[in-house]
Amino acid sequence: MPDEILCDDQRRYIEYLQEKMLDPLWIAVFEQSRWADWSAYLVKRAERLYPEIFESKDPNVLALFDPKKAPYDTKFELPTTIADFGSRLADVKRAADLLGIKTNGNILLATSTDISPSPSSLPTTGDHLIFAGLGTSLYCNYWSKAITAIVTAIQPVLGLDRVLVSADIRRVFEADPSGIILAARLALYYAHFGTIIGFGEVNEPINKTGYRVLLLRAMEIFAVAHEYAHCVVGEKLPHSSGQLDSSESIDLENLCDEIGLLLSREVGNFYEDYLLFVGIGPLIFFRTMQICEDVREQIACSESHELSFNKRRISSGSHPVTESRVEALKNQIYLKTAVEQRENATLFVEEYDRILIEVLREVKESVSSMLNDKNSSSSS
Ligand SMILES: [Zn+2]
User: Fold this and answer.
1) 59/231 Cα distance (integer angstroms)
2) Separation of 227 CA from ligand 1 center, angstroms?
3) Long-range contacts (CB closer than 8 Å, 24 or more residues apart) made by 371-380
4) Residues 40 and 161 in one domain
5) Tens of pLDDT along 199-235?
6) Same domain, yes or no, for 147 and 127?
7) Closest to 21 (Cα-Cα) out of 136, 103, 189
8) Which of 42, 367, 71 is nearest to 191 (CA)?
9) How far is the CA of 368 from the centre of ligand 1 (A)?
10) Which residues contact 158 (CB under 8 A, 6 or more apart)?
């Protein structure tokens, strides 16, 4: 939280919430002291791989590589939070300003100590809090790598043809399986740990980085925009921040998805970024969560003892189920797009979703055959 000076009460309250969110098994990840070694390693690696980012002297980037420069307001505040989400929140605020839905209260960004992919927010009558952190940024980073590997493998196989049927994308998986293999590994890791934190290094061909960074931005902007929407709604409808029954919470989540998409599109406008504009970020976020949760369910239900490890299901709780979230998203994209752009936008989103549904099918099929092999070898 570099721009905001916190009073002691605020700092103590944030730290208290961070402590409550923290799973004791993951405490090492959120200990500032361990970040010094990691930063030193990162500096060497980044200087070698991306010399230009050091030349850019972007203060957010430099803070990431120099933990001493990071503003540590609480004992769980990590330098990555502001590097990952500071500019995302600034973009969302700017979009909200342009759309006339700016919050009256300040928004403070704090490190989430929750390992799950979703950030969270705490609308109040004064300043609002948005907690975001490694759970979200790593989830978006790794999945955007997998989806980039899949999407960029299409053109060499299909040329300029669109992906119309599932057989088209299966030919792509056969020609270059790197993306689908990564997707399956991510889903299995998530099924075990309930997070993508700690997955390890994934090398990416340098020519794919540009597209991946766009997907990453589209996903992270929507994640922050959805939480920003909670703060806006919290001001307009103060009772929405209290206890809600399940249908009221689903309505609230749908409303925040709708506002989140609106904000993402506005950010897309000022970057001239079509992926942001047509809502590819939330589409990937929802569908990959569905892949992760479905694989978790498959394994939890399997009869194989070694694999039925973590039966604890991390459910999205009050969030509407994926299918209805995706349908609502597509409907909004259709309604909010100008008539002359509507057909292209719809075709693009439908094609993207066709690809993601095929990734879901392929990953589940591989996990299923892996579980069958396991069962037949343990019974023989
Ligand atoms: Zn929400």
Assistant:
1) 27
2) 6
3) 371/298, 371/299, 371/302, 371/304, 371/307, 374/302, 374/304, 374/306, 374/307, 375/302, 375/303, 375/304, 378/304
4) no
5) 999 999 999 999 999 999 999 999 999 999 999 999 9
6) no
7) 136
8) 367
9) 32
10) 168, 171, 172
Mean pLDDT over 247-271 rounds to: 94
Distance 340 CA to ligand 1 centre (A): 32
Please identify which residue in the block is written with the tokens 């960074």.
213
Count the Cβ atoms, other than its own, within 10 Å of residue 300. 15
Give 274-298 pLDDT, tens digit per residue.
999 999 999 999 999 999 999 999 9
DSSP-assigned beta bridge partners for residue 120: 131
Q: Provide the domain limits for residue 18.
A: 8-133
Tell me the C-alpha distance between 58 and 240, whole Å. Answer: 38
Q: 80 and 150: one domain?
A: no
Q: What is the pTM of this model?
A: 0.89
Instruction: Mark the residues whose beta carbon lies below 5 A from ion ligand 1.
Output: 253, 256
CA angle 329, 334, 340 (to 5 degrees): 150
Q: How confident is the model at residue 314 (pLDDT cuts 50, 70, 90)?
A: very low
In the structure encoding, which two tokens stand for residue 332, read together? 């909004």
Residues 148/211, Cβ–Cβ less than 8 Å = yes
Residues 128 and 186 in one domain: no
> Last residue of a domain, which of 81, 101, 133?
133
Interatomic CA distance for residues 67 and 38, integer angstroms = 10
Task: Tell me, yes or no, whether 66 lies in a domain.
Answer: yes
End-to-end CA separation in angstroms for the chain: 58
Same domain, yes or no: 141 and 129: no
Name the nearest CA neighbour of 179 among 367, 365, 358, 371: 358
Distance CA 179, CA 356 (A): 12
Judgement on whether residues 103 and 241 belong to the same structural domain of the protein: no
The tally of domains found in the chain comes to: 2
pLDDT greater than 90 at residue 191:
yes
Would residue 3 count as lying in a domain?
Answer: no
Beta strand 128-132 with 107-111: parallel, antiparallel or unpaired? parallel
Which of residues 133, 151, 172 is at a domain's end?
A: 133
Say if residue 38's pLDDT is above 90.
no
- How many angstroms is it from 363 CA to the middle of ligand 1? 27
Ligand 1 centroid, distance to 256 Cα (angstroms): 6
One domain for residues 277 and 298 = yes
**Cβ atoms < 10 Å from Cβ of 264:** 31
